[in-house]
Amino acid sequence: MTKINPVAGFLLVEPQKQDTTTSSGIVLPESNQNKPQQGKILAVGDSVYKDGREISSPCKINDIVVYSEWGGKEYKENNVNLLLLKFDDIMAIIK
């Protein structure tokens, strides 16, 4: 797996690949593809404290989540694209 352990308040996500072909069979050029906005949680940082309140992760390892389009910091490990996101960047958990 990965050697990265996110610090408090952060999550490590593996973005899911986007389809490059439409349902009608049209192949989209790379310049027309959107940045992925969902991925799998690989690691979860500890809770963070803000204004005296504990804020824990909204998700757990192996959850599939939807996150904000421009959130996080991209990181590459062993030719795998990863993303470090703040807890606040998670918008939904896909069940």
Overview of this protein structure:
- This protein has no helices and 8 strands.
- The strands form 2 sheets. It has a 6-stranded antiparallel sheet with strand order 6-7-1-2-5-8, with no helix packed on it.
- The chain is elongated.
- The two termini are 23 Å apart.
- With 95 residues, the protein is mostly beta strands.
Describe the protein's topology:
Layout: E1 10-15, E2 38-44, E3 48-50, E4 53-55, E5 64-67, E6 73-77, E7 80-86, E8 90-94
Antiparallel strand pairs: 1-2, 1-7, 2-5, 3-4, 5-8, 6-7
What about the largest sheet?
6 strands, antiparallel
Low-confidence stretches: none
The CATH homology group name: GroES chaperonin
What is the strand tally?
Answer: 8
Radius of gyration: 15 Å
Range of helix content: under 10%
CATH second-level architecture? Roll
How large a portion of the residues is in β-strands, by DSSP E?
Answer: 35-45%
Strand order of the largest sheet: 6-7-1-2-5-8
Distance between the termini: 23 Å
Report mean pLDDT, rounded to a whole number. 86
User: What is the name of the CATH topology?
Assistant: 10 Kd Chaperonin, Protein Cpn10, Chain O
CATH class: Mainly Beta
| H-E order | EEEEEEEE
Shape: elongated
The oligomeric status of these chains comes to: single chain
